[in-house]
């Protein structure tokens, strides 16, 4: 099996580690090997947080610059900060206004590197649905809509269902389904 490399980025408090846990648990449920690393930095003060996750056979937990298949970012500025980790032909999924991402200054680089970029206002969608703290699940669902990598939407949704505490299970699944559908419209 090919090894898939995910870089997940955002700011402290945005749920980067939980988002990584959803992807990792789904991979384990499917019988895949995983390896990961996290950098917290000033996370408690809203600083940068990045998580590396490899699904498949891997010898080291950190992803080299220019080697990541996917960048899923909870923050537009953090998407730009971790852009160097995306390989040519990779994909970026950002929590941003779709018509404003990528910035016109970055678009030529993405084109040269054949890096596809997709954005959705995940935070706004989660807020509108009554669960702003579930923005991370919104981004996982948005990513799942594109059918990339070894984890399909049904498997990711099942992991969200099984990991969500009962009081928030219904709203988490509603956010997943809504954001998955929004992503499907862009495919």
Mean of residue pLDDT?
Answer: 93
Query: How would the global form be characterised?
Result: globular
Helix content: 25-40%
CATH class reads Alpha Beta
Biggest beta-sheet profile: 6 strands, mixed
Beta strand count:
6
Termini, distance in Å? Answer: 25 Å
Number of helices in the DSSP assignment:
7
- Going by CATH, the homologous superfamily would be Pyruvate-ferredoxin oxidoreductase, PFOR, domain III
- Strand proportion, as a percent range, falls in 15-25%
Number of domains: 1
| Biggest sheet: strand arrangement | 2-3-1-4-5-6
Task: Describe the fold and architecture.
This protein has 187 residues and is of the alpha/beta class. The chain has a single domain, classed as 3-Layer(aba) Sandwich (Pyruvate-ferredoxin Oxidoreductase, domain 3), CATH 3.40.920.10. The chain contains seven helices and six strands. The protein has a six-stranded mixed β-sheet. Strand 4 (68-73), helix 2 and strand 5 form a beta-alpha-beta unit. It starts with a strand and ends with a helix.
In short:
With 187 residues, this protein is an alpha/beta fold. 39% of the residues lie in helices and 23% in strands.
Helix and strand layout, with pairings?
Blueprint: E1 4-11, H1 16-29, E2 34-39, E3 48-55, E4 68-73, H2 76-81, E5 86-95, H3 107-112, E6 116-120, H4 122-128, H5 135-144, H6 153-163, H7 166-184
